[in-house]
Design brief:
The protein is of the alpha+beta class. Helix content is 47%, strand content 14%. It has 14 helices and twelve strands. Helix 3 runs antiparallel to helix 9 (170-178) and helix 6 (109-131) runs antiparallel to helix 7. The chain starts with a helix and ends in a 14-residue tail after the last helix.
Length: 346
């Protein structure tokens, strides 16, 4: 691909790499291993003597930590960092600062938040599982994690460059399209399978109420609700929540998850809450929670009837300092209460 072609990315390029980042299921081991060998050759290195597969980043880190003395030195800089830096310097020089910024915004920036969030959560999960809060172990494991090439989760920056056959990044790109994380060392390369499950919400955050949001073949898994990490056993409670159980939860973040899952309107109804203010715009409700900010909501009735003639009730969460229903509704429109006139709203 020429530079002129490369700086005009088509939507299919971003779509392809978005799919790579979210891919689940067995790795294409033959393609991934070929990509590893190619990446070594592109870096001017001898191919690894051995390629080993693991079921997850957790298993890979455990293996590397136990056998690092026999693997040789890390060659991550040679196979990933240096060719990436060289390609970026060339493209930046040809496009200039503004052109490079436009190119990045059209490509990698669109995937960056999602891929980095996934990578960060995986690292944290590995450290929690293997270090268990032991600082000395955590420090050594972080060094192992720094040796990793993130495979499919390199999609954001790979999207911004030419990874077609014959280019400096074709080997790294081939592994990303076929497998998960990998660790390149002088004598051996350690590769990971991709996740078996990935569940996200509309914002791209890990999200699942009835099981792991991210899971690997060996059982390594991460649980989350709308992006927030939660214990696996916590999710099992959600189907049997009661207002009493929600009030008894000491962890403010977990209590918010409970309220979102249970439903604020249902909680208000079943907890015997009373309105604190009402006016022509709606009804203001306040839920006082120990050790956390109040949950304040406005109950409003849609002025446009449903097809069956009924009017639907909505619950709008508003800032804790809200004192009147009108103030809350005005806030949802970005207006001061004095500037909000519901008779003129359409």
């Amino acid at each position: 691909m020429t530079t002129a072609e490369h700086v005009r990315p088509v939507e299919s390029d971003v779509t392809e790499w978005r799919q790579v980042a979210a891919a689940t299921g067995p790795a294409d081991r033959a393609a991934a291993e070929a990509g590893v060998r190619l990446a070594y050759r592109r870096a001017g290195l001898r191919e690894p003597e051995r390629i080993r597969w693991t079921a997850s980043p957790l298993e890979a880190v455990r293996l590397v930590a136990a056998e690092k003395d026999t693997l040789g030195s890390s060659v991550r800089d040679a196979v990933r960092n240096r060719p990436w830096a060289a390609e970026r310097a060339v493209l930046h020089g040809e496009l200039g600062p503004d052109g490079w910024g436009e190119h990045w915004n059209a490509t990698g920036a669109r995937l960056w938040d999602i891929t980095q969030a996934l990578a960060s959560r995986i690292r944290t999960g590995v450290l929690e599982e293997l270090a268990g809060g032991r600082r000395k172990d955590e420090q050594s494991l972080r060094l192992v994690l720094l040796d990793a090439v993130l495979g499919q989760h390199e999609a954001a920056w790979l999207c911004a460059f030419d990874t077609s056959q014959g280019g400096p990044l074709d080997g790294v790109g081939a592994v990303a399209r076929a497998a998960g994380w990998w660790w390149p060392y002088e004598r051996e390369a350690i590769l990971c399978e991709r996740p078996t499950e990935l569940h996200r919400d509309e914002a791209g955050r890990l999200d699942r109420a009835d099981g792991p949001a991210l899971a690997f073949p060996d059982g390594f898994a991460l649980h989350a609700w709308r992006g927030m990490p939660v214990p696996a056993e916590f999710l099992q409670e959600l189907s049997a929540l009661t207002p009493e159980r929600i009030r008894a939860e000491d962890n403010a973040e977990l209590r918010r998850v409970m309220l979102e899952h249970y439903g604020y309107d249902r909680y208000l109804d079943e907890s015997g809450a009373v309105p604190v203010h009402r006016d022509e715009t709606g009804v203001l409700w306040r839920i006082r929670l120990d050790g956390d900010e109040d949950v304040v909501m406005v109950e409003v009735v849609n002025s446009t009837p449903e097809p069956d003639g009924t009017s639907r009730t909505y619950w709008l969460r508003v800032p804790p300092a809200t004192r009147t229903a009108k103030e809350g509704v005005a806030w949802t429109f970005g207006l001061h209460p004095d500037a909000y006139d519901p008779e003129r709203q359409t």
